[in-house]
């Protein structure tokens, strides 16, 4: 494994930790600023919106900057945002710090995906991307619980100071380990935007947003599902979330490995598995053992979709893919926000705490249909010898890794 991938993974761990850390510290934040728990919860929504806006805007504005320099700049912005949050005297400034740190999220993972893919041979691109995203998955298993414990014992600000330290470690790693390659001459805003003229790229983004959103439709409401329906105590939620996080790590790793062998087949297999597991969760949530097993598998198949979906949309760009890659990160987050909203709407409609599961299954099924349309269009529009085979992720016509210039 190139050491540069380790630097990207450490940075991803810090970014993932700050994304989720407020979830475990809402009472402390609410009490400190004398706001309600739902108002404190808006810190998560504000972060998500910052990701959706920052991913395409920052990436589009920096297409002529060397990718290493851009990653360094994004980590500086990330550290600054968390410093603002750690020192914030008011709720408004805390929200400002959250949004500032979120702005770098999508651009970092978008550019980082291109850099990671360029560090390895073409047949290992999805695996390299999954290794970078391992940092994000470990943030669920280790970062969020560690930040919660730190914040509960030393005040919520200490969690943000911890994230600042992680950001500094990632910054040093990127500065010393990531190759300083020049951006290709054709990699400018016009060439990056050219990819968005392709209907296939928009279909790829739609598959990401809609297919992945089913996962968050369910997981957003996993706490009341596991306590009120499955019958677990509130104290059990910590280890249940850790178990789910282990599923994320496993799914991310094996999803990347499988995608390198058979990209299209992996996407279909995992999306279908996600829809099936979500539907089953509607019923298994009523039994403790079955609910625990389903929760772990849900994390695995859900997060396993990220490396292949990210790889495919970069491949569909057919040229400079940094902006498309960042747009796909925004699509993941947009899908998460919409999925969470639809799951909540089902609960508000009186359909019960298990309803987000079957709602998620329906949403993901729509994503599968769009994937079928996308692959069908690709096969009709391309000569047989240049079609990306369903049993392999690369062909003679596949674009070279975008960061090899």
UniProtKB/TrEMBL annotation:
Domain Major facilitator superfamily (MFS) profile residues, every copy: 4-379
InterPro entries: MFS (IPR011701), MFS_dom (IPR020846), MFS_Efflux_Transporters (IPR050189), MFS_trans_sf (IPR036259)
Membrane topology per record: Multi-pass membrane protein
Keywords of this entry: Cell membrane, Membrane, Transmembrane, Transmembrane helix
Residues spanning the membrane: 38-58, 70-93, 99-120, 127-147, 159-180, 201-222, 237-255, 262-283, 289-309, 321-346, 358-377
UniProt entry tagged with the keyword Secreted: no
Listed name of the protein: MFS transporter
Organism per entry: Streptomyces luteolus
């Amino acid at each position: 494994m190139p050491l540069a991938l380790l630097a990207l993974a450490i940075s991803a761990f810090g970014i993932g930790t700050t994304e989720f850390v407020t979830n475990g510290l809402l009472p402390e934040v609410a009490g400190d600023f004398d706001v309600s728990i739902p108002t404190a919860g808006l810190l998560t929504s504000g972060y998500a919106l910052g990701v959706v806006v920052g991913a395409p805007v920052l990436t589009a504005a920096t297409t002529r900057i060397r990718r290493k320099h851009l990653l360094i700049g994004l980590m500086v912005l990330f550290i600054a945002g968390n410093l603002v949050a750690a020192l914030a005297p008011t709720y408004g400034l805390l929200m400002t710090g959250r949004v500032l740190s979120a702005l770098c999220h999508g651009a970092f993972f978008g550019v980082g995906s291109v850099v990671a893919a360029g560090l390895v041979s073409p047949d290992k691109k999805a695996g390299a991307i999954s290794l970078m995203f391992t940092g994000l998955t470990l943030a669920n298993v280790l970062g969020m619980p560690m930040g919660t414990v730190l914040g509960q014992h030393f005040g919520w600000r200490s969690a943000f100071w911890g994230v600042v330290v992680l950001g500094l470690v990632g910054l040093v790693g990127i500065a010393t380990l990531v190759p300083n390659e020049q951006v290709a001459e054709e990699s400018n805003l016009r060439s990056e935007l050219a990819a968005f003229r392709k209907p296939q790229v928009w279909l790829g983004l739609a598959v990401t947003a809609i297919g992945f959103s089913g996962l968050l439709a369910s997981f957003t409401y996993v706490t009341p599902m596991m306590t009120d329906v499955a019958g677990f105590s509130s104290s059990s939620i910590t280890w249940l979330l850790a178990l789910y996080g282990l599923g994320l790590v496993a799914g991310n790793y094996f999803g990347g490995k499988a995608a390198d062998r058979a990209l299209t087949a992996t996407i279909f297999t995992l999306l279908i598995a996600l829809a099936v597991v979500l539907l089953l969760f509607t019923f298994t949530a009523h039994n403790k053992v079955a609910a625990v097993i389903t929760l772990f598998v849900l994390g695995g198949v859900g997060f396993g979709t990220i490396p292949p979906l990210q790889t495919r949309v970069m491949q569909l760009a057919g040229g400079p893919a940094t902006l498309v890659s960042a747009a796909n990160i925004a699509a993941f987050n947009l899908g998460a926000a919409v999925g969470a909203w639809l799951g909540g709407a089902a609960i508000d409609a009186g359909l019960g705490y298990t309803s987000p599961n079957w709602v998620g299954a329906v949403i993901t099924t729509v994503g599968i249909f769009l994937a079928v349309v996308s692959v069908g269009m690709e096969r009709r529009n391309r000569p047989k010898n240049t079609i990306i085979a369903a049993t392999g992720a690369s062909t003679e016509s596949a674009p070279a890794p975008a960061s090899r210039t």
